[in-house]
């Protein structure tokens, strides 16, 4: 039996009169690639933001790896082991690629202001390990050659990879990717797929939002479908694809 | 090879700088007079202040228009504990650290309610905070007289280092070293400490977190940075150097009153940072020195110049001085918005912005 890593139940999120998430519950198991799809405005990104602590849900329960993360702050969520990327890439544009990943090590290191000023042995050692680990991760996602380049100047595909490297630097158990293939050409998408397999094989569970249905069917072990803030289907891709409710949500009632 | 050469070059530059800074007051004192050493002493105080504010504004990107409040806290701490006002005469090695500590506490006190604010809104709240501190100092003379109100505090103890009072001339051999010389070395030592502190903070895990916060606070939060703590740390550490400078100011002047801590002072310190090169330590130092010294040079030059060219005073020198000074700021910001000596990163930011503007047509 698969072991649950993340479990939410009865999650509600309202923005004024808009009921963005309506009684959403789902379970993500250790080691799987879990997909989240739905028409535009279905609440995918809202759910994503709830799961990564950027939004505070109004009601429900949220446990991760045995920890209660209901209404936890983002840094608590990250330290519990959930890291994310953004739909519209949010790198630290004026920092180098390497520095971006080094920021990702923040939560896994601890030198404070005093250590920074005194530059004691422990601090210097930690700083060296932050740097070497960051270099390692750049190589892991395949962009070690642009380590000293400013993030702003990287190609789109490289920026996507850098964002993944930065998220991996927080040593997540669950990596949440918000439309990582958006705007990529087929070759870049293929490479991304390879990278995601590598990450999953490295023992990191993946939560994925994506519009590219074919990619989702290829990659995901299980898929949940959101529509108007409600989960309308969940299961293995072949079953979800044939679900009449899903077809209706995507294509309109006439096709069902 | 080249690396060794670079190191040699660095050591060489460092030694030259050290020698220049060590003999500077003697050169200035013998050519321009002691009043100019006094101006340089003030320049050092402003370097400390600007470096402190630079932590908040330059590193963490939090616009603070009330920074002078921390200078005031440091100054009043020193004055109240080292003057006849309460009859307390604690030594400087207690009062200055205590002033720095109080200033840092006030930094956290200011930081806590403004955690959710950014940009313009933050600027307005900090401006209000700065004024509140000044008005408190102005009015805390009744019902219990704490700050002596607008009259200020007089006869503040000069710094006394192991029996050597910096407030009196020191006789060495045949020559006498004026108090401004002694304070120069005291200020220089502390300025060097503040520079080292700022430099090391910038190139650390904490410094990176500040830059991340400045560039994109949501992404920074999503990377696990505790936004609340890292902001408060910036406010506290910035205020700390402001507090040190404040204590030194009180001892140097021997007199403080709320008038010294007005909004214009806060704005001047901000101008030093922006004009020098926000976030870049050498630039900020340059900005502080130039903005302290330039108005004084103008003071010495404008009057005589008018007399020479027109034979009489056309414009009151004091007005003309500030007019020229304001004009210089305007021109500077139009010609070099990134500052006199920006960091590479910031220079690139401005070039990117220019390019983007050009592309839009």
Automatic annotation (TrEMBL), chain A:
Keyword Protein biosynthesis: no
Pfam families: ABC_tran, BCA_ABC_TP_C
Protein name stated in the entry: Amino acid/amide ABC transporter ATP-binding protein 1, HAAT family (TC 3.A.1.4.-)
PANTHER family per record: AMINO ACID ABC TRANSPORTER ATP-BINDING PROTEIN, CONSERVED COMPONENT OF ABC TRANSPORTER FOR NATURAL AMINO ACIDS-RELATED
GO MF term list: ATP binding; ATP hydrolysis activity; L-isoleucine transmembrane transporter activity; L-phenylalanine transmembrane transporter activity; L-valine transmembrane transporter activity
Organism (species): Gulbenkiania indica
Gene Ontology biological process: D-alanine transmembrane transport; L-alanine transport; L-isoleucine import across plasma membrane; L-valine import across plasma membrane
InterPro entries recorded: AAA+_ATPase (IPR003593), ABC_AA/LPS_Transport (IPR051120), ABC_transporter-like_ATP-bd (IPR003439), BCA_ABC_TP_C (IPR032823), P-loop_NTPase (IPR027417)
Start and end residues of each ABC transporter domain: 6-253
Keywords: ATP-binding, Cell membrane, Membrane, Nucleotide-binding, Transport
GO cellular component terms given for this protein: plasma membrane
SUPFAM superfamilies: P-loop containing nucleoside triphosphate hydrolases
Top-level taxon of the source organism: Bacteria
TrEMBL record, chain B:
Membrane topology: Multi-pass membrane protein
A molecular function (GO) term: branched-chain amino acid transmembrane transporter activity
GO terms for cellular component: plasma membrane
Annotated localization: Cell membrane
Ranges annotated as spanning the membrane: 12-32, 44-72, 92-112, 119-137, 182-201, 232-256, 268-298
Record's keyword terms, sorted: Cell membrane, Membrane, Transmembrane, Transmembrane helix
Domain of life: Bacteria
Pfam annotation, one family: BPD_transp_2
Chief location of this protein within or outside the cell: membrane
Protein name: ABC-type branched-chain amino acid transport system, permease component
């Amino acid at each position: 039996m698969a072991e649950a890593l993340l479990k939410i139940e009865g999650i509600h999120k309202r923005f004024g009169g808009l009921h963005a998430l309506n009684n959403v519950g789902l379970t993500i198991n250790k080691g799987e690639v879990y997909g989240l799809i739905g028409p535009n405005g279905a609440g995918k990104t809202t759910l994503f933001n709830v799961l990564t602590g950027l939004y505070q849900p109004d009601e429900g329960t949220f446990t991760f790896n045995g920890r209660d993360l209901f209404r936890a702050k983002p840094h608590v969520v990250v330290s519990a082991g959930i890291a994310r990327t953004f739909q519209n890439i949010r790198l630290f544009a004026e920092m180098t690629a390497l520095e971006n990943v080094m920021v990702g090590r923040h939560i896994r290191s601890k030198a404070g202001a005093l250590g920074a000023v005194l530059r004691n042995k422990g601090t210097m050692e930690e700083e060296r390990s932050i740097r070497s680990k960051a270099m390692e991760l750049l190589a892991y996602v395949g962009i070690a050659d642009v380590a000293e380049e400013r993030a702003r100047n990287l190609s789109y595909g490289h920026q996507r990879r850098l964002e993944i490297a930065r998220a991996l630097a927080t040593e997540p158990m669950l990596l949440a990717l918000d439309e990582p293939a958006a705007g990529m050409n087929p070759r870049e998408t293929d490479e991304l797929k390879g990278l995601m397999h590598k990450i999953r094989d490295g023992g990191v569970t993946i939560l994925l939002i994506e519009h590219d249905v074919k990619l989702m069917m290829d990659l995901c072990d299980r898929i949940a479908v959101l529509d108007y803030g409600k989960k309308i289907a969940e299961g293995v891709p072949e079953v979800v694809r044939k679900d009449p409710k899903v077809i209706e949500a995507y294509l309109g009632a006439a096709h069902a | 090879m080249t690396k060794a050469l670079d190191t040699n070059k660095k050591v060489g530059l460092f030694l030259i700088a050290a020698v220049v800074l060590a003999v500077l007051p003697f050169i200035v004192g013998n050519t321009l007079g002691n009043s100019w050493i006094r101006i340089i002493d003030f320049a050092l105080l402003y370097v400390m202040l600007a470096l402190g504010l630079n932590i908040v504004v330059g590193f963490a990107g939090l616009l603070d228009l009330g920074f002078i409040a921390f200078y005031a806290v440091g100054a009043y701490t020193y004055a109240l504990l080292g003057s006849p006002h309460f009859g307390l005469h604690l030594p400087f090695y207690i009062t200055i650290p205590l002033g720095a500590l109080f200033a840092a506490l006030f930094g956290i006190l200011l930081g806590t309610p403004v955690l959710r604010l950014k940009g313009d809104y933050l600027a307005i709240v900090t401006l209000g905070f700065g004024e509140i501190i000044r008005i408190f100092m102005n009015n805390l003379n009744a019902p219990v007289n704490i700050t002596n109100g607008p009259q200020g505090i007089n006869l503040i103890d000069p710094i006394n280092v192991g029996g050597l009072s910096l407030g009196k001339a020191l006789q060495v051999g045949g020559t006498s070293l004026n108090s401004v010389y002694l304070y120069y070395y005291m200020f220089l030592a502390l300025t060097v400490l503040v520079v080292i502190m700022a430099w090391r903070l910038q190139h650390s895990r904490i410094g990176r977190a500040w830059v991340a916060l400045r560039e994109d606070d949501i992404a920074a939060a999503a990377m696990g940075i505790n936004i609340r703590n890292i902001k408060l740390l910036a406010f506290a550490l910035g205020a700390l150097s402001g507090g040190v400078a404040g204590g030194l100011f009180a001892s140097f002047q021997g007199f403080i009153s709320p008038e010294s801590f007005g909004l214009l002072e806060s704005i001047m310190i901000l101008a030093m940072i922006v004009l020098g090169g926000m976030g870049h330590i050498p630039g900020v130092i340059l900005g502080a020195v130039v903005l302290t010294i330039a108005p004084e040079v103008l003071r010495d030059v404008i009057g005589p110049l008018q007399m020479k060219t027109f034979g009489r005073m056309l414009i009151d020198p004091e007005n003309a001085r500030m007019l020229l000074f304001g004009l210089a700021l305007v021109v500077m910001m139009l010609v070099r918005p990134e500052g006199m000596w920006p960091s590479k990163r910031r220079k690139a930011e401005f070039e990117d912005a220019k390019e983007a503007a050009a592309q839009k047509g």
